[in-house]
Structure formats: C-alpha cells, structure tokens
Specification:
By secondary structure, this protein is of the alpha+beta class. Helix content is about 50%, strand content about 5%. It is built from 14 helices and six strands.
Length: about 300
C-alpha cells in the first residue's frame, strides 16, 4: 500500500490502466484483500466500523496470486487491497478509505473539521509502510518464505499495464528495488532494519505525547488513525517490539483497542504462522539480533 503521492487525489484507475476488462462491468462493491496484509487488515476493520459489507475476494500473497496477469490487470502495482465499486477501480488502502468516507459519511471515522489533518497523518503512516514490511520480513516471517526468484520478478515486471491514471507508474520500480535488495542481501539489510526500527520508535514517541492529552490519537473518539496505528502496533508487537515498556501510554491504548473483537479478529494470525514467528524470534534472540537489539 502506497499513496499516489498527489495530495487530495484518490487513486482511481483509468479504463486504460485496467487490462482485466471484465471488472469494469461489475456491479456492486467488491474488495480484493489478503488476511495477513496490514493494509487489508486496516481496511477490513474500517469497513466493520462503518457497517459496509462488500463482496470479498481473497488474494493469497503467499501463493503470489497478486502477481498473476489477471490480478495485475486490475491493480497494476500488484498490491492489496483493491476496491471495485460499480466498475470503478480504486487502489491504495488510504485512498479507498477516503473514497468510502465520502460515499458513506455516517458513522464518521474522521473527526469534524480534521479531514486535512487526518489526510496528512495518514500520508505519514503510509510512508512507513515499507519500514513495516522490512521489519515484518526480518522478525515476523522468515525471509526464505517471501523471497522472490528472478523468474517471479520478471513476471511481476511484465504483468499489468504499468500505468496509473493513464500515465506511466514508477511504483513498480520501488517494489522491484525492495525485492532485489532482499535477494542481494538474503534478507532485509542491517541498515534498512535499523532505520525502520528508529522510524517507528520516533512515531510511537509522538503518539505517547498525544495520548497524554486524550484517550485516542485524535481526540475523545476512535478514528481511522487509531485503526491504522492499531494494525501497525499489532504487527510490531508480533515482531518482538516492546511497545508497553517503551511507550506505556501507547501500550495501554493498544490494550484497550485490542479488547474490541472488530479489531482483534481482523489481525488474528493462524496458529502455524504464530508458531513460525515465535520460532523466528527465538532464532534471532539466540544470535543476539532480535528487534530490541536495535533499540539500545
């Protein structure tokens, strides 16, 4: 999930961007998603609170279903989630939320008078997505599971229209660079790992200050920003980040949100993944390279 980089513009695809033409004639609301994707989790939680129930279409990232010609004909970046609404194709989770908030204004998850502020804060959250991916693939799932072969990278490069809003899209180059970096270093490099940990620590420090003044990140009620950061906090805790110890107010905020089944069920991990993640943390701890090593 990456924003389009153009403030105020939702990433709605032009018909020429979409090679899987059949979806342009679809009726109703459809969501392509993956259970373990942080962006998909954020959007599903948002939909739960809004009471919006699209037709769900799972896309298995582990099996690289997001890199098939059919799916990349819908989303030329090969990412989830993707929303189709009466034949309109919208990509990027924050843009989908912006689109749906305008279409379904009640109940609101953006505080009155704070739309621009929320947009800026979601853009900041979005810029940390590659950092979250790096830490996920360093401390949450083994690199060998997610590595891309040369053939898979070639397939990804060739699939899709390569354009968004009718213009050439450079996002694929960012994706390719990430996976090639993973391949070259046989995992997430040390420099990227340290930078990602430091970026999240700084962000949580800011939230610690905000939560000293109010129960939620933007005020007295839960907002889409709380949803976004709940998902991030949950993933980082799963990677071994000591949230409650370093940021006690954030830890208490997370614990309160985690009691809500509408949030918790969307981030729940299957038992096999829980076991793999726990084993990976033990391996890193034995090597002295667990996530807390980068916090000293």
């Amino acid at each position: 999930m990456r924003q389009g980089g153009e403030t105020g513009r939702v990433v709605e695809l032009a018909a020429s961007d979409v090679l899987t033409k059949e979806v342009l004639g679809w009726k109703g609301l459809h969501l392509f998603h993956f259970s373990g994707s942080s962006c998909s989790q954020k959007l599903r939680i948002y939909l739960n609170f809004k009471g919006i129930a699209p037709s769900l279409h799972p896309v298995n990232l582990v099996k690289h279903e997001n890199e098939t010609d059919w799916y990349m004909g819908i989303n030329p970046r090969g990412l989830v989630p993707t929303l189709i609404d009466e034949g309109k194709v919208i990509i990027e989770s924050n843009d989908i939320i912006t689109y749906l908030e305008a279409k379904f204004p009640s109940p609101t998850l953006i505080p009155e008078g704070q739309r621009d502020k929320v947009g800026a804060l979601l853009n900041f959250e979005d810029r940390l997505h590659m950092d979250l991916r790096a830490l996920t693939m360093r401390f949450f799932v083994p690199a060998a599971i997610v590595q891309r072969s040369d053939a898979q990278l070639a397939q990804y490069h060739a699939a899709g229209s390569g354009q968004v809003r009718g213009s050439a899209d450079d996002h694929k180059a960012d994706e390719m660079a990430f996976w090639r970096d993973m391949k070259e270093h046989n995992g997430v490099p040390e420099t990227r790992t340290r930078a990602a940990v430091e970026a999240f620590r700084a962000a949580f420090d800011d939230h610690e200050v905000a939560l000293a003044r109010r129960p939620y990140l933007l005020g007295e009620t839960l907002s889409v920003l709380d949803i976004a950061w709940y998902v991030y906090a949950n993933r980082l805790r799963g990677a071994g980040y000591p949230l409650a110890r370093l940021h006690p107010r954030v830890g208490a905020w997370f614990a309160k949100l985690d009691q809500n089944k509408m949030l918790r069920r969307e981030v729940a991990q299957p038992l096999p993944l829980q076991m793999v993640s726990a084993g990976l943390r033990l391996v890193h701890r034995a090597k002295g390279k667990h996530i807390q090593t980068y916090l000293s």
